[in-house]
What does this fold into?
Amino acid sequence: MELETHLSESQSAVPGTVRPGGRTAKVRAAVLEATEDALAAAGFHTLNMDQVAAAAGVGKTTVYRRWGSPVGLVTDLLRDMADRSLPAADTGTLEGDLRANAALVLKTLTDPRMGAVFRAVIAAAACDEECAAALHGFYRARLTEWAPVVDRAAERGELDPGTDALEVLRAVSAPLYYRFMISREPLTEADARRAVDAALAATRAGAYATGD
It folds into this structure.
């Protein structure tokens, strides 16, 4: 039986800006799970609204009214993924925290399902401004979530207080995403270790000092 809902938002509402509850939340969860399944299986360019609705057990009218387009589905999925992401580590040292961050990135990108999903949404962002904005929002949220690991390290005296936390975190994940999306090389734990070693060396040398 189809999941049913009475949506309060209008057809013009931006996908994902209304945080629903009750049946509406169940519909959203089902549709986003079906979207994730479709992206993992075949990528963004074959994402079909009717097929997502059928897989989710939701009426097509509901899906078109709430999400509007495949881009709307991906945009809302990214928002939901940001909301569900694991909190930042707190190991007691900057090195430990950055290694935990790199391990999380590595685990996500090498997971058969989630790696395929991220490859699909990154590809979508390359050709659609709305997807690009959603992807930027996702990563900005994750960087902001992890920024306190650098701030705490500065408070402990491990590095200069003026260090740009977001740049440190970007330095950890950037080499991994390069291998994942650009050179399409296998990702290993050794790659994650090197990325952290390089980020730590650059951070301690003042490469990410803000000048404040």
